[in-house]
Specification:
Blueprint lengths: L18 H28 L4 H10 L8 E2 L2 E2 L3 H14 L1 H21 L2 H12 L5 E4 L15 E5 L2 E12 L6 E8 L2 E8 L5 E5 L11 E11 L12 H35 L1 E2 L2 E2 L4 H29 L5 H25 L11 H11 L6 H13 L6
Parallel strand pairs: 3-6
Antiparallel strand pairs: 1-2, 4-5, 5-9, 6-7, 8-9, 10-11
Helix pairs in contact: 1-3, 3-4, 3-6, 3-7, 4-5, 4-6, 6-7, 6-8, 6-9, 7-8, 8-9, 8-10
Amino acid sequence: MPTAQHPFELYAIDSLLTEEQRAIRDTVRRYVNDRIKPEVADWFESGELPARELAREMGELGLLGMHLDGYGCAGTDATSYGLACLELEAGDSGIRSLVSVQGSLAMFAIYAYGSEEQKLQWLPGMAAGELIGCFGLTEADFGSNPSGMRTHATRDGDDWILDGNKMWITNGTIADVAVVWAQTDDGIRGFVVPTDTPGFSASVIHKKMSLRASVTAELVLTGVRLPADAILPNVRGLKGPLGCLSEARFGILFGTVGAALDCLETAIDYSVSRTQFDRPIAGFQLTQKKLADMTLAVGNGMLLALHLGRLKDQHLITAQQVSVGKLNNARMALETARECRSILGGNGITLEYPIIRHMNNLESVFTYEGTNEIHTLVVGEAVTGISAYR
């Protein structure tokens, strides 16, 4: 009998990584296997997450803002950050979201657009996981069209007054600082908002069936008074939040590969041990076709992610290329999870196995930080030169 190979062995994935990248990947994998996977089904079922505890642990590992330089950040290359996201999402999309929102949205906004004083005040504590950040862009009526946001900031002497609501905000109720985007007379601007500022409140969004091992909140800002130096000085307009989202989507295009791979590994192991009609179901042609097709899909998604990682490390990547990765890999991962669920039959719907949890989570990943439809239109515009948004 031939020896079974891991799906990525067919692609010789390790040969495409540097020794440092493999070491970072393996460190995160050990953490996820030891700390996340044994507990995450219970967190998902209860809808609770020890987020602050996990943030401190991941801060000690250097995972928060790991692709940023200085201010206590690890300063790794982009591909290493992507590989970390892959391993974190193999644990759970909610865990990767915690790291992604902290590092690629809240921290990156301050790092890329903030003043030196803002960076020194917030980034070291956030890198250590002692301070938690959130990112307030999406509103209940303005997701794919953030330019229509109703949250606004008005001048009052030297101060700013913020009013508005933000929806679907990861880390919202546990955050120490929120990066909030608002309409001003000078266009859309970003503000660094300490969450203990009077008028700021956050409430948990309950009754979720996806990303249950993640803190999701609504933010309400009512007459929040901020000093003049709370504004992010180095960006105006949608360029700011969209730049942050491009950073976060890069993590997603790796992370979704991790969720898909965890589903595929589970389905392979199950099919080898599950016996029907006196033989393992892995020995049936229909099952092997499913596994072979998914091996190609996940492997090709990994190659795409690594290619985009190299482009980002060379400072050559474009927002449209990030959309290609997010569109392809989120779609691939959701389809893979659904097919793997079918291989496990009835067992596939229980939290004893990770597949239904990944499948539910990926329904959110398929939609957030640019829906499948919006990224489709980004790619469509890129290849036709015609915008079809309106």
